Amino acid sequence: MKDNQNKVLIFAGTVDGRKMAEYLLKYHVTVYISVATEYGESLVSKEKGLEILTGRLSAEEMEELMVKLRISSVIDGTHPYAKEVTENIKRACEKTGIEYLRLLRKNSEVENDIIYVSSTKEAAEYLKDHEGRALLTTGSKELKEFTIIPEYDTRLFPRVLSIPEVVEACKKLGFQGRNLICMQGPFSEELNYAMLKQIDATFLVTKESGQTGGFLEKIWAARRAGVTSLVIGRPMEESGLDVFSLKKHLIQKLNLQIKRKISIVGIGMGGSLQMTEESRKICEDADLIIGAQRMVESYEDKGYAIYKSYQASDIKGYLWEHPEYENVVILQSGDVGFYSGTKQLLTEFKDEDVILYPGISSVSYFCAKIRVPWQNVKLISLHGREENIVEEILRHQYVYSLLGSTFGLHDLCEQLLHYGLKDVLIYAGENLSYQNEKIISGSPSQLLKEEFSSLSVVLIKNIHYKKRTDLWGIKDEAFLRDKIPMTKREIRMLSVGLLMPEEDSIIYDIGAGTGSVSIELARWAYGGRVYAIERKKEAVELIERNKMRFQTSNLQVIPGLAPEALRSLPAPSHVFIGGSGGNLKEIIHTIYKKNRFAKIVIHAITLETVSECIELIKTIEDVQSEIICVNIAKAKEVSRYHMMMGQNPVYMITLERLGE
């Protein structure tokens, strides 16, 4: 029967049941709500597509109703204490063959500041033997049980519905005036807390009615107020589905097309006071909270659904398997816009409704702590990333960086000392915003002796910083040479100009010699990486010495002969070939296997090499080539005259493909 596929009957005696009705209506499911009283009807929002049925029903009447309305599924959302009603609903479903779904409130796991009793009578006996005032939140029907307590009319403060007959019944038992609180819920944690403080309570008496019955708000308030919670446990063991399990079942059965909201929330440094009020509210309203262990642990004891992960692909897979979570919060440390995983999350969830909520970044927090304005600070991260921090320190007065498990404070200090930056001042911080926060300062040699967390931050001050004005065309005499051939300054300048690397390029210098071209390229592409490939041992040692001399920490020397020495290197964006060792064809093919769009500049000083290049170009598809010959002559003083002395002509062959 097709007309009953999306018809659901909900016995909504609880907030959970009413919320389930609102959920299904949102997805255009026909929903009928059955409530026992007019008061229950008044609590239900009058939504389009919703029909409310008021009045107590017997099992037979329930059965007739289900058949008449052609219901496909029945949800029992009655109160956990309404045992008789639950039995009637079950019986009606069994006779009609209609699916019965019990909606359970979530039992709340709390700590040991709670005393559990099995009944109202037992709760009254406990209070009889213990001094102190008590806020009673168990309703009016069982108030008589508490009249056995000495001076109950002044010690006890019942909170009941503001209905005349209820107030009158309480007055007959002796509860009136300031000791009788007549209010309609729901009650927030703050309101519960205020009431407990107002009456100077020692105890809170409540029934374990689940999260959405306001149970947790009572417990949290009592804990804050230093009040002992006296909890009357559930009278029966139940089986069924919690809210989210029920939603998942209905999504699959009714083929609901879920619209999910994902909030990516920056939580600040992690201390409890670091979150903004907006972010805190977003988390409180979430169906599911996702984040690394340390981020979600404060929510674990508050009844939230939790998934522990920081990997975007894992999170996407989990949400695909759990469509029941509509309102999802993904926590990010610090700020969502400062070296967080937000960028990858936005890629994974590009087709979803995603909203970003900023947090307090570590840089703003830390710079405030050490009283350094951060608008002119160079920001980088060494947490799971490679950065040329030496070059950044040489270029900037202040450099701020996140550190990580693979490159911590000890590694940083060693590197700075290795490259001669012994006079910089380092501010280091760990466990920012927590009680064990630690902030120290000193030189690299001083902080080398400190024990520090791998997950920390640093701000480096270099009063000797200067803007690089000699990036291009270092004078020949500045290099250490020994007897190794070196590409002359003017040729180097032309070569770098033809190659045109970006600041973050990955570059090979094959046949690096003294490393002069490698040094120029490393200073130009200071945010990238340069690999100097050289087979001669003495040349390798010389490149290392020049690397130290020019403080180019992003230059890595690779001993060996190309193309074998290239196999394990990352794909290059640019390649300079100063010497091929007779393997030019194999080298070019290896480069293009790694990146077919790599730009290549080849130096040749013999016509045979030029001829080999020309023949090779003919075999490469879609490559644009350019060949130029450069003749450089420099003046030399002879007696009182200047004579131009010619250098060997150099052929420069550029290979380039259009594309990225």
Key words describing this protein structure:
33% helix, 23% strand, alpha/beta, seven-stranded mixed beta sheet, six-stranded parallel beta sheet, 23 helices, 660 residues
Describe what this molecule looks like in 3D.
The structure is a single chain. This protein has 660 residues and is α/β, with parallel strands linked by helices. The chain is 33% helix and 23% strand. Strands 24-23-22-25-26-30-27 form a 7-stranded mixed beta sheet, with helices on both faces. Strands 6-11-10-7-8-9 form a 6-stranded parallel beta sheet. A 5-stranded parallel beta sheet has the order 3-2-1-4-5, sandwiched between helices. Helix 8 packs across helix 9 (215-225). The longest helix has 14 residues, at 83-96.
Per-chain topology:
Blueprint lengths: L6 E5 L3 H12 L3 E6 L2 H5 L7 E5 L4 H11 L3 E4 L6 H14 L2 E4 L11 E4 L2 H9 L5 E3 L15 H4 E5 L3 H9 L8 E2 L6 H10 L4 E5 L7 H11 L2 E5 L10 H12 L6 E6 L10 H8 L3 E4 L1 H8 L4 E4 L3 H10 L5 E6 L9 H7 L4 E5 L4 H8 L8 E4 L7 H7 L2 E5 L6 H10 L6 E6 L7 E5 L1 H4 L8 E6 L27 H11 L6 E5 L5 H9 L4 E6 L2 H13 L5 E5 L14 E4 L6 H11 L4 E6 L2 H12 L5 E7 L2 E6 L2 E6 L3 E7 L4
Parallel strand pairs: 1-2, 1-4, 2-3, 4-5, 6-11, 7-8, 7-10, 8-9, 10-11, 12-15, 12-16, 13-14, 13-15, 17-18, 22-23, 22-25, 23-24, 25-26
Antiparallel strand pairs: 18-21, 19-20, 19-21, 26-30, 27-30, 28-29
Explain briefly what this protein structure is.
This protein has 660 residues and is α/β, with parallel strands linked by helices. The model has no long low-confidence stretch (mean pLDDT 89).
